[in-house]
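Let's practice the habit of predicting before peeking. Look at the sequence and jot down your guess about where helices and strands might fall. Then scroll down.
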Amino acid sequence: MKGALGQTGAVTPALQALAAALTLKTRHCPPTLNCPDLDPARGSIELVREARVLAIDHVLTHAIGFGQTS
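Done guessing? Here is the structure:
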């Protein structure tokens, strides 16, 4: 979400929680935006480049720095 929207301030945790809930409900995984290349030293990480349906059972959000965590 942050790659697409940037830091949205105090609403960031709410947006990420909503996106996570919708992802779990619809199984539509949003793409990773604005991350063209990864450091090869980080190992094998698969980024979702286009929205697609996946067998998703868990999601993770990370939004700190504005008095809230989620």
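How did you do? The beta strands are 28-29, 52-53.
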